Amino acid sequence: MPGTSSFLIVANRLPVDRVGEDMWRRSPGGLVTAIAPVLQRREGAWIGWHGAPDERLDPFEHDGMHLIPVPLSEQEVELYYEGFSNATLWPLYHDVVATPVYSRALWDAYRLVNERFARAAAEAAAPDAVVWVQDYQLQLVPAMLRRLRPDVRIGFFLHIPFPPGELFQQLPWRRELLEGLLGADLVGFQRPGGAANFIRLCRKTLGLQYQKHEIYVEDRVVRAEAFPISVDFGELDVLVREPHIVARAQEIRRDLGNPEHVLLGVDRLDYTKGIGQRLKAFGELLADGSIKPGEAVFVQIATPSRERVEEYIRLRDSIELQVGRINGEQGELGQQPVQYLHQSYDRDELAALYLAADVMVVTPLRDGMNLVAKEYISCRHDLRGALVLSEFAGAAEELKQAFMVNPYDVDGLKRTMLTAMRATPHDLSRRMRSLRRRVATYDVDRWAQDFLAALEA
Ligand code: GDG
Predict the structure, then answer these.
(1) Which residues are listed as membrane-spanning (predicted)?
(2) I need a surface site. Which of 58, 138, 191, 395 has the fewest CB within 10 A?
């Protein structure tokens, strides 16, 4: 029996975190920030795991959204989520910057959990519903759902990069993954390069014919195209003008000792984000005297992430060692050049930090998009502030006026950080004005509208 939702989001996680018995709060993170507003407007439902293992919950309402929890066992969290999603696909899709784990047990769990999500979607979807499946954890759902419900329109969006064939071909289950995605009517990517990689792989691995963005699968046409995700420019632009945010930004600078330059990094603590690279560059600038003691402070917010996955445990140790070394060698009593915070903050505090920072340092080794870069731009209506941006972030395709870097090139990174610190107000405002035009036009609404218009066309 079909369900009643004419619009469905299917994602690994529900867009909420539990804050007490039956108390929920909208969660931070790229995906939620982007999609929650769309769902509220469309009065649809969101299918996803609620975050606690071995627990079944009934559907519930939160913040104007109908939420349908999918249960996961403790073992599935380990094998499907921490395992195949975050120890296999995540590193494979990010240039193999860590070594992917290939294990049949992880794959079996991934398939099983994808099947459960597909069944939940099939039950909730009204006849001819629109179903929008999100991200790398659920790449088999489109084909599984199509088998159960050939009447629905299925879109899929990949938030992380789609790798070139040379890397993707490592995957023992490469055919199954491609076939899973091809169950969708529209497969969206962050960059045109991702769509091109996918199309080429479909031809090479599955022998499918294609023309431009269209792949021919039996009697169907599947479109593969880029839809660069964005942020809620308007909301941030209004928020940072509020007196309490302005006051907090000034207070942050005071607390840091009013240095000439505040540099800022905001990332999940993830090995793709290039946190070690930027700290190395900053540490060397202090050590070689390019930056005088007390002249600059680097604030690094590293939000806790995937804390049980081995690579992440190692990364945390290595970053914390590095921070300790820099502060130990370059600091003075009461003066620490790196302020490292392994904590989560609320939106207001992040906005105040963006406003307080002279130089935003975004240096991923590979990143689907990177919303932090776009959030920083949205907050700088004062046209001050410099964005240092890795050419390997999806955002680099759009944000050409940023100070571009190759994060693997330490000398280049040092030079660019200095250039950004010393840029004239005129240069900064010229760049920021153009960056803001781009993000204001292509905001998150535009992203969702473009994707859904293409899906429903
Ligand atoms: C994936 C892709 C793609 C971070 N710390 C806190 C916090 N955040 C928010 C940021 C930003 C989001 O989380 C992070 O988004 P990113 O895009 O930078 O990175 P991923 O988490 O890796 O996201 C990425 C994205 O999906 C969307 O498609 O851009 O490439 O990897 O919004 O502000 N938010 C709060 N407290 C924190 O401590 N409230």
Answers:
(1) none
(2) 58
The domain containing residue 142 runs over which residues? Answer: 5-229+445-456
Task: Give 225's strand partners.
Answer: 188
217 and 256 both lie in a single domain: no
Closest by Cα among 51, 15, 18 to 31 = 15
Residue range 202-259, pLDDT digits in tens: 999 999 999 999 999 999 999 999 999 999 999 999 999 999 999 999 999 999 999 9
Among 268, 340, 362, name the best residue to mutate to test ligand 1's pocket (greatest count of ligand atoms within 8 A of Cβ).
268
- Atom nearest to 393 CA in ligand 1: 30
Contact 163, 95 (CB under 8 A): yes
CATH code of the domain in which 216 resides:
3.40.50.2000
- Its ipTM equals 0.99
Residues 243 and 211 in one domain: no
Pocket residue to mutate for ligand 1, from 369, 371, 439, most atoms within 8 A of Cβ? 371
* pLDDT tens track for 113-126: 999 999 999 999 99
